Amino acid sequence: MKLLIILLTCKLFALEPSQIQSIAGYHTKYASTVTAISYVESRHGANVGVNRIAKGIMQIEPKTVRWIATKDKRLRWISNCSDRELCYVLINNDYVNVMVGSILLDYRINKYGYSRGIERYNRIGNLDYLKKVRERL
Protein backbone atom coordinates (compact mmCIF):
# COMPACT_ATOMS: atom_id res chain seq x y z
CA MET A 1 0.00 0.00 0.00
CA LYS A 2 2.84 2.35 0.86
CA LEU A 3 4.36 1.83 -2.62
CA LEU A 4 1.02 2.61 -4.22
CA ILE A 5 0.73 5.89 -2.30
CA ILE A 6 4.25 6.89 -3.37
CA LEU A 7 3.51 6.04 -6.98
CA LEU A 8 0.28 8.01 -6.97
CA THR A 9 1.72 11.12 -5.35
CA CYS A 10 5.05 11.31 -7.19
CA LYS A 11 4.90 13.86 -10.00
CA LEU A 12 8.08 14.41 -11.91
CA PHE A 13 8.61 17.44 -14.10
CA ALA A 14 9.18 17.15 -17.84
CA LEU A 15 12.15 14.93 -18.47
CA GLU A 16 15.22 15.70 -20.51
CA PRO A 17 16.35 13.05 -23.00
CA SER A 18 19.33 12.21 -20.76
CA GLN A 19 16.96 11.58 -17.84
CA ILE A 20 14.77 9.32 -19.97
CA GLN A 21 17.85 7.40 -21.10
CA SER A 22 19.03 7.08 -17.50
CA ILE A 23 15.69 5.68 -16.31
CA ALA A 24 15.45 3.33 -19.28
CA GLY A 25 18.99 2.09 -18.65
CA TYR A 26 17.87 0.45 -15.43
CA HIS A 27 15.21 -1.59 -17.23
CA THR A 28 16.54 -2.35 -20.72
CA LYS A 29 19.75 -2.36 -22.73
CA TYR A 30 17.93 -0.33 -25.41
CA ALA A 31 17.89 2.96 -23.49
CA SER A 32 18.70 5.08 -26.55
CA THR A 33 15.83 3.47 -28.41
CA VAL A 34 13.47 4.22 -25.51
CA THR A 35 14.55 7.87 -25.67
CA ALA A 36 13.91 7.96 -29.42
CA ILE A 37 10.47 6.37 -28.96
CA SER A 38 9.60 8.89 -26.25
CA TYR A 39 10.37 11.67 -28.71
CA VAL A 40 8.29 10.11 -31.50
CA GLU A 41 5.41 9.40 -29.14
CA SER A 42 5.26 12.67 -27.21
CA ARG A 43 8.35 14.81 -27.87
CA HIS A 44 9.65 13.75 -24.42
CA GLY A 45 6.35 14.67 -22.78
CA ALA A 46 5.66 17.98 -24.52
CA ASN A 47 2.66 16.60 -26.46
CA VAL A 48 0.99 14.46 -23.82
CA GLY A 49 -2.79 14.62 -24.11
CA VAL A 50 -4.87 13.51 -21.14
CA ASN A 51 -8.01 12.84 -23.18
CA ARG A 52 -6.45 10.09 -25.25
CA ILE A 53 -6.34 6.39 -24.53
CA ALA A 54 -2.53 6.22 -24.52
CA LYS A 55 -0.93 7.93 -21.52
CA GLY A 56 2.25 9.77 -20.67
CA ILE A 57 5.66 10.24 -22.22
CA MET A 58 5.74 6.76 -23.73
CA GLN A 59 2.06 6.90 -24.77
CA ILE A 60 1.11 3.54 -23.29
CA GLU A 61 -2.45 2.26 -23.13
CA PRO A 62 -3.55 1.00 -19.70
CA LYS A 63 -4.64 -2.34 -21.17
CA THR A 64 -1.12 -2.77 -22.61
CA VAL A 65 0.37 -1.98 -19.20
CA ARG A 66 -1.84 -4.62 -17.58
CA TRP A 67 -0.83 -7.12 -20.24
CA ILE A 68 2.93 -6.51 -19.91
CA ALA A 69 2.58 -6.67 -16.12
CA THR A 70 1.57 -10.33 -16.50
CA LYS A 71 4.86 -10.97 -18.35
CA ASP A 72 7.26 -9.22 -15.95
CA LYS A 73 7.23 -9.58 -12.17
CA ARG A 74 8.79 -6.11 -11.69
CA LEU A 75 5.33 -4.78 -12.59
CA ARG A 76 3.24 -7.05 -10.36
CA TRP A 77 2.16 -4.04 -8.26
CA ILE A 78 -0.02 -2.96 -11.19
CA SER A 79 -2.55 -5.67 -10.36
CA ASN A 80 -3.31 -3.72 -7.16
CA CYS A 81 -4.24 -0.55 -9.08
CA SER A 82 -7.70 0.32 -10.28
CA ASP A 83 -7.99 1.59 -13.86
CA ARG A 84 -8.34 5.13 -12.57
CA GLU A 85 -5.23 4.83 -10.38
CA LEU A 86 -3.25 3.28 -13.22
CA CYS A 87 -4.18 6.09 -15.61
CA TYR A 88 -3.25 8.66 -12.97
CA VAL A 89 0.17 7.05 -12.47
CA LEU A 90 0.83 6.80 -16.22
CA ILE A 91 -0.03 10.47 -16.74
CA ASN A 92 1.58 11.94 -13.63
CA ASN A 93 4.60 9.76 -12.88
CA ASP A 94 7.11 10.05 -15.69
CA TYR A 95 9.52 7.61 -14.06
CA VAL A 96 6.93 4.83 -13.96
CA ASN A 97 5.79 5.62 -17.50
CA VAL A 98 9.33 5.35 -18.88
CA MET A 99 9.99 2.23 -16.78
CA VAL A 100 6.92 0.45 -18.13
CA GLY A 101 7.68 1.58 -21.68
CA SER A 102 11.24 0.28 -21.34
CA ILE A 103 10.06 -3.11 -20.11
CA LEU A 104 7.47 -3.27 -22.90
CA LEU A 105 10.04 -2.42 -25.58
CA ASP A 106 12.50 -4.94 -24.17
CA TYR A 107 9.82 -7.65 -24.28
CA ARG A 108 8.87 -6.82 -27.88
CA ILE A 109 12.49 -6.77 -29.07
CA ASN A 110 13.25 -10.08 -27.36
CA LYS A 111 10.17 -11.64 -28.96
CA TYR A 112 10.25 -10.12 -32.47
CA GLY A 113 13.81 -8.87 -33.01
CA TYR A 114 15.07 -5.29 -32.92
CA SER A 115 13.36 -3.67 -35.92
CA ARG A 116 10.11 -5.60 -35.65
CA GLY A 117 10.07 -5.03 -31.89
CA ILE A 118 10.20 -1.27 -32.43
CA GLU A 119 7.41 -1.51 -34.99
CA ARG A 120 5.37 -3.57 -32.53
CA TYR A 121 5.86 -0.99 -29.75
CA ASN A 122 3.46 1.07 -31.82
CA ARG A 123 0.67 -1.48 -31.78
CA ILE A 124 -0.09 -1.11 -35.48
CA GLY A 125 3.52 -1.87 -36.34
CA ASN A 126 4.36 0.06 -39.49
CA LEU A 127 7.59 0.91 -41.26
CA ASP A 128 6.90 4.66 -41.04
CA TYR A 129 7.03 4.40 -37.25
CA LEU A 130 10.32 2.49 -37.40
CA LYS A 131 11.75 5.15 -39.72
CA LYS A 132 10.74 7.96 -37.33
CA VAL A 133 12.37 6.18 -34.38
CA ARG A 134 15.57 5.49 -36.33
CA GLU A 135 15.79 9.17 -37.30
CA ARG A 136 15.83 10.08 -33.61
CA LEU A 137 18.62 7.62 -32.70
Structure description:
This protein has 137 residues and is mostly helical. It has one domain: Lysozyme. The chain is 61% helix and 0% strand. The chain is built from 8 helices and no strands. The chain has helices spanning 2-9, 17-25, 31-42, 62-69, 83-92, 94-112, 114-121, 127-136. Helix 2 (17-25) crosses helix 3 (31-42) and helix 7 (114-121) crosses helix 8 (127-136). The radius of gyration is 14 Å and the shape is globular. It starts with a helix and ends with a helix.
Task: Map the helices and strands.
Elements: H1 2-9, H2 17-25, H3 31-42, H4 62-69, H5 83-92, H6 94-112, H7 114-121, H8 127-136
Helix pairs in contact: 2-3, 2-6, 3-8, 6-7, 7-8
Percent strand: under 5%
Instruction: Please give the domain count.
Output: 1
Total helical segments: 8
Overall, the morphology is globular
Output the keywords:
8 helices, Lysozyme
Summarize the structure.
With 137 residues, this protein is mainly α.
